[in-house]
Specification:
With 278 residues, this protein is α/β, with parallel strands linked by helices. The chain has a single domain, classed as 3-Layer(aba) Sandwich (Rossmann fold), CATH 3.40.50.150. The chain has a 7-stranded mixed sheet, sandwiched between helices. A 3-stranded mixed sheet has the order 1-3-4. Strands 9-10 form a two-stranded antiparallel ribbon. The chain binds S-adenosylmethionine.
C-alpha cells in the first residue's frame, strides 16, 4: 500500500513547527515537575498531518508537529493525534509503532475532540492538555474552541486562516460570497457576527460602500472572541505567519488561562520577530 502524500511546507510552517516544539518542551517540563498536586498532562494534535513534511527551503524531510511532540523530554503522559485523511492516520500509526501512550484517531477532529478526547482531560481529574488546532483553512468548528475555553484544563494554539478567509469570504462585494463559504466562516467564528466586524461603511458621492477592514483588525476581533466568548483569560497578540512575499497566510494564536503560559509564548513569539501585523 502506498504511503501518505507528503505535504511540501513553506518557511513559515517551519517557523510554526519550531514555535510549537519550543512551547511543548516548556509545557511538559513545567507540568511533569509539579508535585502535590501532580498532573497528568496530555498532548492533542487535532489536524496532525502525516508526521513528516518536505521542506520547500531545504528539499529535506522535516518532522511535523506530532513527531516533534513525541520526542519531547520529559514526555507527555498521553498523546492524541487526529487526522481525517486515512493515509495520513495510517502513516502516523507506522511512525508511532508500538508506543502505548499514543492514540491515533482517524476522523473529523471536530467530533473526535468533543466526544472522545476532551472528556479525558477534565480539570477536576488533575488532567491538563496542550491542544494544537492547525487546519489548512476554515475547517475548525468554534464549538471545539468554546469547549476548550470552558474546560479550564486546556491551552490551545490556533491557526486563524486569514488567507482562506480573504480569498473565499471577505470579498470586496459581500454579495459575491457563496453560501458554502459563509457557512464555513460561521462554523469557525461560532456565529455570523464576523460580518459586523469585517467591513466599515465608507460614505461616497453614490452612498455608503462596504470597505474591508485590515487583517489585523479582523484578527483582533477574533482575539477578543477568544477572551469574551470562549473564556480564555490569556490570549497574547497572535503571530502573523507570512509567505516569502510578505503576505500573511495565517495568524498563530495562543489561548490559555495561565499568566506563565502567556509570558512564555509571548517570549517565543517575540523571538520569532513578531513584527507589525498586516
Ligand atoms: C496544516 S496540516 C497539519 C500540519 C501539522 N499540524 C504539522 O504542523 O505538522 C492539516 C491536516 O489536517 C487534516 N484535516 C483536514 N480536515 C480535518 C478534520 N476535519 N479533522 C482532522 N484532520 C483534518 C489534513 O488531512 C491535514 O493533514
Amino acid at each position: 500500500m502506498p504511503g501518505p502524500r507528503i505535504d511540501e511546507i513553506g518557511p513559515w510552517s517551519e517557523v510554526k513547527l519550531e514555535i510549537l516544539k519550543r512551547y511543548a518542551v516548556e509545557y511538559s517540563k513545567i507540568l511533569a515537575s509539579q508535585e502535590s498536586p501532580s498532573f497528568w498532562h496530555v498532548y492533542i494534535d487535532a489536524f496532525a498531518g502525516a508526521g513528516v513534511h518536505l521542506s520547500r527551503t531545504s528539499g529535506q524531510m522535516v518532522p511535523g508537529s506530532p513527531l516533534n511532540a513525541l520526542l519531547v523530554q520529559p514526555p507527555f503522559r498521553e498523546y492524541h493525534l487526529v487526522d481525517l485523511d486515512g493515509d495520513k492516520a495510517r502513516g502516523l500509526r507506522e511512525l508511532v509503532g508500538d508506543r502505548t501512550d499514543v492514540l491515533i484517531h482517524h476522523g473529523d477532529c471536530n467530533r473526535v475532540l468533543l466526544e472522545e478526547v476532551f472528556p479525558r482531560v477534565k480539570f477536576e481529574d488533575r488532567k491538563r492538555g496542550l491542544c494544537i488546532l492547525d487546519p489548512y483553512g476554515l475547517h475548525l468548528d468554534w464549538r471545539v474552541i468554546q469547549t476548550a475555553g470552558s474546560m479550564g484544563s486546556l491551552e490551545v494554539f490556533i491557526n486563524f486562516p486569514i488567507y482562506d478567509i480573504n480569498i473565499n469570504v471577505l470579498h470586496h462585494d459581500p454579495e459575491t460570497v457563496s453560501a458554502s463559504h459563509i457557512a464555513r466562516m460561521n462554523a469557525y467564528w461560532g456565529d455570523n457576527s464576523w460580518k459586523e466586524v469585517a467591513y466599515d461603511k465608507t460614505p461616497t458621492l453614490f452612498g455608503d460602500i462596504d470597505e474591508k477592514v485590515s487583517n489585523q483588525r479582523f484578527a483582533e476581533a477574533f482575539r477578543s472572541r477568544l477572551k469574551t466568548v470562549a473564556g480564555f483569560s490569556r490570549v497574547p497578540e497572535p503571530l502573523p505567519m507570512r509567505n516569502s512575499k510578505g503576505a500573511t497566510v495565517y495568524y498563530l494564536f495562543f489561548a490559555s488561562q495561565k499568566g506563565t503560559a502567556e509570558r512564555i509564548v509571548t517570549y517565543i513569539f517575540d523571538n520569532f520577530g513578531r513584527g507589525t501585523t498586516s
